[in-house]
Backbone:
């Protein structure tokens, strides 16, 4: 097997805000060509973890070592002020000097090439999400971070976009960090799942994570694809706020 | 045809409009109009100190506005007050300190009205040099950081994640704003500088559909406002700063009138 480049490595990383740890003790790594998925309930620190990797937030504890030459980001929430006239084409070129062919290419990939000259604030939620993904992949990043990338996209589009994300990881040979609620996709494409709740509850291949009692506890039985699970060494339990009880 | 002083003020005014165009767009996009006000109110303190220590007005205004801007940035991290409260606090306290100091400097002849509302008709060759030379430096730096500052304006997280260093460009942008206030204070006046930043850019907003177009249009609208304002100031013997702002306001109102736009402009 060829040596895959290590893109980012977290070692016991944590972020502390207003006398509370948002996340703590996060350790994992992302390599070239790998899709790592973060799952977890609201407020479990998924976006915080992504922001640490992207250098938007600094780790207050532990170490985040980034090796990726180029990173691209599809944030969960973004609002463009109406005071700014901004077309899709301007937005596509926001952080890199792309030519029009490159812009068209990636907009075609996400199915929104017709919107090139539309104002960003006239797009629907789903259309804007497709533009966001197109913008991120047009940069041909080494590490792509997608925070709930298909929110607001219709069902068929969702499957197509997930397939596209899988294709991109192969064609660009980039690492992908995906934050997702959609276990179906996680099951079918991800190499590595990390289940987060302020700390890493469990991680591993999708098949092993859904059988993990920690996962079942967080998401409930019905979300798990399989009903038969095995008891493993369950070394901690959770308080109401998700922190680990002694 | 025209007197020398008029030609001088025209050259100076056009120079200022070229710089306030792009900065004004950024002020509007980033919702910083009150921040601009704060900096220009503190400029009065800068002027007072310039007289007290007989140093160059533009230099002293730039230093004071810069200090106020940096104070604001550090206060925002340390206190629990909202940004607008801090801005108001700094704006009025620096304005008050400036006015108090003026009282102590009663021996020096002071044109308070000129400071507050500008005295474009007293522009010297040195002023023109400061405006054009300082303006070119401001525009040069702005051009250099444009990609970064623009990305940070659209979305901070995106800019930070994709290596645009938004904190650095935000900091530089703040100093550029202090710089534009410093070079235009004498002409437009402390109370009206924000008007020249905002009104041409606001007028350009309704006429443009992409950022570049808005920047170019606000420069052009700023130049037209300066020219109309100065001519009417000469014609009707009104104060020059307010005349320029009123001219800008008239253009803004005209821009609100709906008319059929060409498809070329829409693209």
Residues:
């Amino acid at each position: 097997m060829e040596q895959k480049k290590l893109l980012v490595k977290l070692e016991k990383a944590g972020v502390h805000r207003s006398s509370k740890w948002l996340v703590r003790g996060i350790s994992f790594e992302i390599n070239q060509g790998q899709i790592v998925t973060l799952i977890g309930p609201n407020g479990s620190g998924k976006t915080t973890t992504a922001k640490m990797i992207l250098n938007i937030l600094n780790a207050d504890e532990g170490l985040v070592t980034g090796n990726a030459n180029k990173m691209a980001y599809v944030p969960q929430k973004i609002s463009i002020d109406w005071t700014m006239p901004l077309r899709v084409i301007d937005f596509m070129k926001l952080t890199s000097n792309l030519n029009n062919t490159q812009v068209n290419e990636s907009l075609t990939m996400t199915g929104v090439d017709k919107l090139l000259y539309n104002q960003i604030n006239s797009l629907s939620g789903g259309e804007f999400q497709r533009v966001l993904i197109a913008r991120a992949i047009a940069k041909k990043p080494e590490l792509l971070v997608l925070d709930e990338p298909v929110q607001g996209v219709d069902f068929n589009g969702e499957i197509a976009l997930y397939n596209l994300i899988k294709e991109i990881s192969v064609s660009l040979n980039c690492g992908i960090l995906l934050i997702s609620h959609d276990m179906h996709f996680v099951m079918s494409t991800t190499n590595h799942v990390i289940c987060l709740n302020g700390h890493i509850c469990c991680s591993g291949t999708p098949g092993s994570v859904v059988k993990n009692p920690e996962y079942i506890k967080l998401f409930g039985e019905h979300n798990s694809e399989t009903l038969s699970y095995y008891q493993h060494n369950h070394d901690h339990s959770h308080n109401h706020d998700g922190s680990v009880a002694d | 045809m025209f007197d020398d002083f008029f030609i001088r003020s025209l050259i100076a005014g056009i120079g200022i409009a070229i710089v306030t165009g792009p900065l004004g767009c950024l002020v509007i996009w980033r919702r910083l109009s009150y921040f601009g006000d704060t900096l220009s109110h503190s400029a009065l303190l800068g002027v007072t100190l310039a007289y007290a220590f007989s140093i160059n007005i533009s230099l002293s205004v730039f230093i004071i506005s810069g200090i106020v801007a940096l104070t604001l940035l550090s206060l925002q991290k340390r206190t629990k007050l909202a940004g607008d409260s801090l801005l108001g606090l700094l704006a009025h306290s620096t304005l008050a300190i400036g006015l108090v100091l003026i009282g102590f400097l009663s021996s020096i002849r002071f044109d308070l009205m000129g400071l507050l509302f500008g005295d474009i008709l007293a522009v010297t060759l040195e002023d023109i040099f400061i405006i054009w030379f300082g303006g070119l430096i401001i525009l040069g730096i702005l051009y250099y950081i444009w990609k970064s500052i623009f990305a940070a304006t659209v979305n901070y997280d995106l800019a930070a994640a994709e290596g645009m260093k938004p904190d650095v460009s935000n900091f530089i942008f703040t100093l550029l704003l202090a710089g534009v206030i410093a070079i235009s204070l004498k002409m437009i006046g402390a109370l009206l500088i924000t008007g020249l930043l905002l009104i041409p850019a606001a007028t350009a907003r309704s006429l443009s559909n992409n950022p570049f177009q808005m920047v170019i249009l606000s420069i052009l609208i700023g130049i037209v406002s300066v020219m109309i304002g100065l001519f009417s100031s000469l014609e009707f013997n009104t104060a020059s700063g307010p005349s320029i702002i009123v001219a800008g306001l008239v253009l803004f109102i005209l821009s609100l009138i709906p008319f059929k736009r060409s498809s070329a402009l829409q693209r």
User: Anything to note?
Assistant: Chain A touches chain B at residues 51, 54-56, 70-73, 75, 78, 80-81, 83-87, 90-91, 94-96, 117, 119, 139, 145 (CB under 8 Å). The helical segments of chain A are 46-53, 88-92, 100-109, 125-138, 155-171, 183-189, 206-209, 213-219.
